[in-house]
Write a structure and sequence with these properties.
By secondary structure, the protein is of the alpha/beta class. The chain contains 7 helices and 10 strands.
Length: about 200
């Protein structure tokens, strides 16, 4: 991924097909496709791939609405499942209670708040990373907590990223858009067939 400038000097991001970083890992993208950080052009990329599910675990109604709005700008909102507390998040992942009939498929990423009712975010994270069926799901903590102990414990438990919610509205929107675009479009998860074998 590289930053380029168009004729009007508006910064753009370009995803190059089969580009390699210094370690030789390949990153798949839409060849030559350009899209701005404001989301314009992202629908062209999203249309080229199968929409992956995002699980949003957020009890704050305002933050949940802002997150959904940001993901909608990347045409990802239709692929988001929202739960309001830690217990409901675990029911979703284990297909219990009202989620018993939901399709057996793990989300592409979990956006997890830490300060949750019933079961807190750290306990949800601990449960996910201790379960062979769930531990490969990327988990991004999206929280207002800057407490060092929360950061350390999250990484100790195996979180994939820890993001402090920006106070500024536009910064919050941009942070969520980039998180959603990376994990739901760009990132390549382990093959489902391999995950099924690893469960046995």
């Amino acid at each position: 991924m590289e930053t380029v400038m168009d004729a009007k000097s508006k910064p753009q991001l370009r995803v190059r097909a089969a580009s390699k970083d210094e370690t030789g890992k390949q990153f798949k993208g839409a060849a030559g496709k350009k899209f701005h950080p404001d989301g314009s052009g992202r629908n062209e990329v999203a249309a080229m791939v199968k929409l992956k599910r995002i699980l949003l675990v957020e009890d704050n109604a305002n933050d949940a609405e802002l997150t959904m709005e940001a993901l909608a700008e990347h045409h990802l909102a239709n692929g988001v499942d929202l739960v309001r507390d830690g217990a409901e998040a675990l029911d979703y992942l284990y297909r219990r209670e009202k989620f018993a009939g939901v399709e057996e498929a793990n989300p592409a990423v979990i956006l997890l708040d830490l300060k949750l009712p019933k079961v807190d975010g750290l306990e949800v994270l601990r449960t996910i990373k201790a379960d062979d069926r769930l531990k490969f799901i990327p988990v991004v903590v999206l929280t207002s907590s800057r407490e060092e102990r929360d950061v350390i414990e999250s990484y100790r438990l195996g979180v994939n990223a820890y993001v402090v919610k920006p106070v500024d509205f536009s910064e919050f929107i941009n942070a969520v858009k980039e998180l959603g675009a990376f994990w739901a479009i760009i990132n390549e998860p382990p093959p489902s067939a391999w995950l099924q074998r690893s469960d046995k």
